[in-house]
Design goal:
Chain A: Keywords: Cell membrane, Membrane, Transmembrane, Transmembrane helix, Transport. The complex is a heterodimer of chains A (about 425) and B (about 450). By secondary structure, chain A is mainly alpha-helical. Chain A has 17 helices and five strands. Chain A is flat. Classes of the chains: A mainly alpha (about 425), B mainly alpha (about 450).
Amino acid sequence: MSKRVASPAPAPERTPTDWKSAAMQKRIRRRYARERRFKLFGMMAVILSAAFLAFLIATMMANGARGFTRSEVALHFDFPKLGIEIDRSHLKTPGADLALAGAGLQDKVETLATSPAGYSLASNSAWVTVRDRIKAHPAILDGKATIWVPASTELEMGSRGEGPANVQADARKLSQAGQLRTGFNWGFFSASNSNDPVAVGIWGALKGSLLTMLVTFLIAFPVGVLSAIYLEEYAPKNRWTDLIEVSINNLAAVPSIIFGLLGLAVFLGSWQIGGHTFGPLFPRSAAIVGGLTLALMIMPVIVIASRNAIKGVPPSIRDAALGIGASRIQVVFHHVLPLAMPGILTGTIIGMARALGETAPLLLIGMRAFIVTPPSGFTDPATVLPVQIFLWSDEVSRGFVEKTSAAILVLLVFLLAMNGLAIYLRNKFETRW
Amino acid sequence: MNVFALLFVVVGLGLIGWLTARARAVRFDRGGQKRLHSLPSQHGWYVAMWTVLPALLFIAVWSALSPALIKDQVLKSPAASQLSDFAFERDTILGEARDVALGRADATFDDTATALVEPMRAAIAFYGWTGTGIAILLAFAGGAFAFTRTSPTFRARTRVERGLMLILLLASLIAILTTVGIFLSLFWESMRFFAMVPPQDFLFSTHWSPQLIDPNNPGKSLGAVPLFWGTFFIGAVIAMLVAIPFGLMSAIYLTQYAAPRVRRWMKPLLEILAGVPTVVYGYFAALTVAPAVRNLAVFLGMPFASAESALAAGLVMGVMIIPFVSSLADDSIAAVPTAMRDGSLAMGATNSETISRVLLPAALPGVVAGVLLAVSRAIGETMIVVMAASGAANITLNPFESATTVTKQIVDLLTGESEFDSPKTLAAFALGLTLFVITLLLNIVALRVVKKYREAYE
């Protein structure tokens, strides 16, 4: 630097600011008011967001609480008078259902359940309850019996003080006579889908979710953890590993519905190889296809979480293990992995929670079928809880609103429990090195 | 044999191999001979690997191939001569026969299918047992080969670790395979679509009505511009108008103003919003928000307002995105050096002036990237629009009118009919490809922005 540094010019003469002047006071007041407004906006943003969550959960609870209860109405049967023509010996055979249906049981129950005003007191599926009772106790066919059957939607609403006035009056009369009772709806947890909102349950969907999640976990967890180990501990830095990293980060941001298209094309599409057409690899609507699709979807989540957990293990642990003669594989599998496990599990649980709540990809691979019998294996047609919620939300019948909200509450409880577990694990095993 | 039973048997054989090889290695050790190169359990793993892996590989290939082989053999049987040449009908009949042969159904509807049950059963049994036999043979052969190699000097550890390394590499390749699989499957089906519909019709024409496709000119009713507009309008405009101010302001409040205790409680609470399944948001939007929006529209003087307005779907989607924007904004504000904040405060600026004139401009790249990621999340969101938005493709600026999105149309096109070759179903894959490319670009741009400006303060 040949140039000489100029000495600083003397500060220009200036009258000092008069902070007490009216103009300055006003300016400060204005600035402070803006500060308060800004803070208020921030607070409002937080409060409104929380309020929305509260409102959402409150709405679901208000609607869903009734989904967990159900009303039953007592029907008095005089079986000899009803004239059900059936051979008693049939009742213990597998054909009993068909025989009782053939004897016109459904019509007779419906006639009996029709109120004087012309609407039905019992639900459409009431005769199934009667049928099962007859099968369990054939002796009741010889005399009179009182059987509690699910009440119809009209009567159930009437008993809550909704709907037409005459139905409400009937409901009051019936419950005073001890012929109408409301209790916890255990059937909601043991039954499967049905056309009748009174008889539906979530067991089939829950079981489908369980099977799907099992497949997802068995694929995504090992693959995700192993590839995280490779990328974090062994991978050389070259274009291949860069490509792997980029694709994992991109996969994490791909919309879930794209994975549905992938599942549809790969697992359910047909392949042409060497003149042969290889039909779909898996049956439609099966838990195994859903599980595979969701596994591909959450794998990046598990990889990213596992990598962070593995990165968090200090190098001194590795150096110490290497120093006493462990091989590079032993260092990772005996020392690094156990220490990173809490973080890996937390990430896995969060990924599984995401898979449990996912709907869109499963719609595309056909898990939206009407499933009446719960799936008993990975290749049976199945549906999952979120898809069941979606299907019920499409139903027009009023009774399904409550059931949908009740199913949503069950799903939210599962998800909250999983997220709670993840947070607990993180707090309990979090190590500050 | 059932595939799961077979897997069980193979893994069981692997366990037996592990135990015997380990026992043998332990005896080497005790015999007072030379010292072993590897630990006994490593010899065990070596044998187990050779037992299980070839058999597993074979089972995977076989279960993919055998349906086609079974079909070929059944088609060769005399009963199959009556089958029609029409592939779809033939597959239905074969499917019926297979269900009966496997005991999934009691009887067939079609007489041809009844005749095919026996050949089908024979073919399934033949290929099933052949596969089982080969798999078990492979397991034994692999195990025996490995077992004969165990000796005190055998370097089992090196071999096992090399094998394990290969497995690790394969696991990490699955991510690439998935990406390539997504791209190829979307690209392949889209090419078939564009063979029927000219790309310029699909990309630039403004009429979308897949229910009424003219078979001679399918491009006329498959113009996707209204879908792109609806997706942009709902996901990138309405949802962001909710998510950006709320997300940004709550991030600012929670990081700059709130007491630590409030922050500790409110942050996870907001994150619950991100954990609520989208089907729940969709139901909420359809059940509660959409009627409210419609009432508002009627109140504002639009008596024929749609009950499936763009506004309802966009609002709820925006709420869903709030925690996403908030946590990304939180990160980028936290990355601004404290010195800048302290300097501004020391000059006499109020908190809000510091935030809006110093912190936010400095954090802007991160915030912009966060917004881009949020947009990519919003336009890929499916369930909310499937349940709350309408299927009517309109190009409109009025949020109270109905609009439809790419994701909703994908679901609508693919549920219902199962025919795989019509322009209607293939259009879903073309839409999927468009969606994939756009979200990919948004992500790449977002990551670039972050990477480029992050170094500024480090």
